[in-house]
Every structure is written in C-alpha cells, then in structure tokens.
Design a protein that fits this description.
The chain is α/β, with parallel strands linked by helices. It is built from 17 helices and 13 strands. β6, α8 and β7 form a beta-alpha-beta unit.
C-alpha cells in the first residue's frame, strides 16, 4: 500500500509535512530538483543525500541538516501515514499551484507550501478582508471595541481575519459570527490541537457559519513560541488592513502590525490614555510608524474605501491552453516547463535546453504578465496558467 506512486498533489503534502522542512527548505528542494514528486523519488532511492542539497541563507549557504534528509527519506517510504492524518481530520489543503490559493499571500517572499483548513476555503479569497488583533488580556472596553469593529467590517461585506487567541481575537471572531458574517481564524499549530481549548465551541461556530480555520503547519504540529510570530504574517497578508485594539508594550499584535506595514497593508490603531499599560504598544505604533488612529467607525470605513459598492462582476478569464496559444515560442517553452514542474531559472534552462540569458528574459516577461510567480528560488505557474482547460465553462467561480 505504501509503495504506490503518489500524485504530485500528494507528494506536495508529504514533503511539506516533514518535520524540519519549512518553506525555505521546501522551495529550495522543489526549485532545484523539479517538484516534490522528484524530491521524494530521489529520497526513496537514496540519491537525495548524495546530491548534497544546500539551503541558501542570504549571501552564504549551509547544508540541509542530515536529520532532515533522513526524515524525508522515511516519509518517502511511508507517505500514506501523513496523508491518512489529513483525511482523518477532514482537512482541505491548498498549494500555490492551486487556483484557490489566496492571491494575497503572493506578497510573501516564500508563501506557505501548503495551507490546511476547515470550513469554506473561499473566505481566503474574499474581495474585502480586514484583520482585527490585540492583547490576550483585554479590558472590557477593549473587548467591546473589537466586537464593534468586527461587526462594522461584516456590515461592509468584508471578512474578519484574526488568530483565534483568547481576548481581542476571540471577541472579533465571535462578533463576526453573531453578525452572520464570515471570519477566518489563522492558527499557530496543526489542526490536531487547534488553538485554545476554551475556544473549541467558537471554532465550531466559525466553521458552521461559513468561515474557515486555517494554518500552515501539518496536522499534528505543536504550537511553540516561534510558530505564533510566523502565524501573524499570514494574518496581515490575508487582509487589506489590520486594526490593533489594545496592545501592551510586548504584545504579539505588534508583530502583526509590523508585518502589515512591511507588506504594504493599511494599519489602524485604537488610541488610548497616556501611561495606560494596556495600550502602551498602541501608542508606540502611533508615535513610531505610519499607522492611522482609529478615531471612529464611519471614518474607518471611509479610509478603507469600503463605503463604495462591492463590485461582484468578473471579467472573462483565460484558461491555460488558451493562454499558451498567445505566447511566442520562447515564452511558450519556458511556461510549459514551469507548468510541468516548479523550478529555478537554471532548472528551467536545463529542461528547455535554452540558453540561461534567454530563459531569464522569458521569465521576466512571464512575471510581468502575471502568468508565473516566484517562491524563493522556484518559479510556479500563476494567473491563467493555473486554470485547467474547460474549467471556466458555465461557471463564474474564480
């Protein structure tokens, strides 16, 4: 049973689920060896360790730890174990080569190789989306404000994004559900232990009301102090704007705020009384960053541009075959190679047998078209190259 050949989608899930294979290692392996299926075949045959794969870090490089290579070899020989766990938990998965993968995450240099989730995956592609974050120990005023902000976001036809933590996060999710809106909870662990136990009822209501509970970690990955800061970059990336409600000087919400600024998202901060420790982090953001004060909900909606009607019409879209017919010969060869398997520029040059400068030029043109995307050193299909032929017939789905 374990010996059967995996589909490329299954191989993607198995490789990304190996302990120690973060997005940097994943994209380096995939870019160098031509896709997760190729990586697992090499590992199963004992050739991966012979290749001496290397993981780039800035201007230097270091070998992938031997223990990680050994874990990849084990996973390549027993791949169905991790796949069974995903099935047992009833999770859906999305990878960057799936049309449903949220385009907002392209702002990240190295987007998560896999998103795992419960609920409605379409909430990740909402036309409007705002994150609400803050302290785990809010005052009654802070909790009430978070609920009011979340309710107003829902009234604007937008999705509320937060981290399912106790405090401000929970208040925002609960208000969105009560308002019969959609909300996305981004967790910092695997779905085997999804967030605080006290929020299991809230989690269920989020899913039942049409929201989603998502994360980038394999099902049984435990939360650690390091997983929450990484989770926060997803919260901000999935939103058009981030609202910080009550954050003390060392709040994790400040990490989300700084991610938002780095990602070009709007940042709003609820001000508070000077010398109040509950809002010391908020006041620092207002003093030290381009954050805007949250002075009123009407003003907030106007600043977001959400006062305008939500446009629901969609323009006609190309599918992959139609798009490929529009490309000149060199771009066509490069696009076909990238559609076949992710790869670095050197790997694409090797597969197409085109000179590296010619491949580099074609990659630049395809990036400008929005038909491929980069993830670390690897290039992947994007835009119409993700749309299977005929999948648009009779459907207005993205």
């Amino acid at each position: 049973m374990e010996a059967r050949e995996l589909t490329e989608e299954e191989a993607w899930l198995v490789l990304s689920g190996v302990e120690g294979v973060g997005e940097q290692t994943f994209w380096q392996l995939v870019g160098t060896f031509g896709g997760p299926g190729s990586v697992l075949r090499m590992a199963r045959e004992g050739r991966l360790r012979d290749e001496g794969p290397r993981l780039r870090q800035g201007d230097g490089a270091r070998p992938i730890p031997r223990v990680v290579v050994e874990r990849i070899e084990i996973a390549s020989k027993t791949p169905l174990r991790s796949l069974r766990r995903i099935h047992e938990l009833g999770l859906w998965t999305l990878t960057p080569v799936d049309p449903g993968y949220p385009a907002r995450l392209q702002v990240l240099d190295q987007p998560p190789p896999v998103l795992y989730g419960w609920g409605d995956a379409a909430t990740l592609r909402s036309a409007r989306s705002v994150a609400v974050v803050g302290t785990r120990r809010p005052t009654l005023h802070g909790r009430a404000l978070a609920a009011r902000v979340a309710a107003r976001i829902v009234d604007c036809g937008a999705t509320v994004v937060s981290g399912l933590a106790i405090g401000i996060d929970g208040a925002a999710h609960a208000a969105a559900v009560e308002r019969k809106g959609s909300t996305v909870a981004v967790i910092g662990s695997g779905h085997g232990e999804p967030g605080p136990r006290s929020h299991r009822g809230l989690l269920q209501r989020i899913v039942e009301s049409g929201g989603s509970v998502i994360g980038e970690l394999p099902p049984d990955a435990a939360a650690t102090p390091g997983t929450f800061p990484r989770r926060n970059r997803l919260i901000s990336a999935l939103a058009d704007a981030v609202v910080v409600v009550e954050a003390p000087a060392r709040s994790g919400a400040l990490i989300t705020a700084h991610h938002a600024l780095e990602q070009g998202r709007q940042l709003f901060v609820a001000p508070g009384r000077p010398a109040d420790e509950a809002v010391a982090g908020c006041l620092a953001l207002l003093r030290e960053t381009p954050a805007r004060p949250l002075v009123g909900l009407d003003e907030f909606v106007a600043d977001l541009g959400y006062g305008l009607p939500l446009v629901t019409g969609r323009a006609a879209r190309l599918d992959r075959d139609s798009a490929l017919t529009l490309l000149p010969q060199t771009e066509l060869a490069v696009a076909q190679a990238i559609c076949a398997a992710p790869g670095t520029a050197d790997a694409v040059a090797s597969r197409t047998r085109l000179p590296p400068p010619v491949v580099a030029g074609a990659i630049t043109l395809l990036l400008m078209r929005g038909w491929i995307q980069s993830s670390g050193p690897a290039y992947l299909p994007a835009g119409p190259l993700l749309v299977e032929s005929g999948s648009l017939s009779g459907s207005s789905s993205p």
